[in-house]
Amino acid sequence: MGKWLKCNQGVGVILTSFFTALLIYIYLNPWAHRKLRDGFSLGFFPAVAIVLSIIFSLILIFDSRRKEVLPDLETLTFKSLLSAVLAVVVSWVYFALMREIGFLIVTPFFLLFAMYALGSKSWRNTVLVAAFMTVIVYGIFRAMGIELPPGKLAGILFF
After folding, report:
1. In terms of Cα–Cα distance, which of 66, 29, 59 is closest to 47?
2. The three-state (H, E, C) secondary structure of 49-64, written as one string
3. Domains in the chain: boundaries
């Protein structure tokens, strides 16, 4: 990879571009403008977080250390960058499937895949942890009164 892409300025340009595209995406979606009972729109807090991220990534572009390359980025390869992009795509697929099929069904499979991809060798432990974490997260959200996506199988299954 090019040296400029690995310096603070290059990373800042990439992040600023990404966050700007994300802000435009949120602004163009009707759900972001839906008013909540507290008077805020649904997209207000995500938009604030993205604007702050844009400000911080702009600082990377223009600060006095913009030409510095962090030690971790010196060894960055295309393969590791591709792995990061793949992780984002897999997360997006997870969220899309979770909305359609349901949290309790999709999450254990996602966790199994993620733990395997991260190097877990024991299938028994991986299955146990995936099931345990799914139940714990589901229980915490239910205790807070937040319903996770039940999916289309909610009427068929007992949850």
Report:
1. 29
2. HHHHHHHHHHHHHHCC
3. 4-75, 78-158
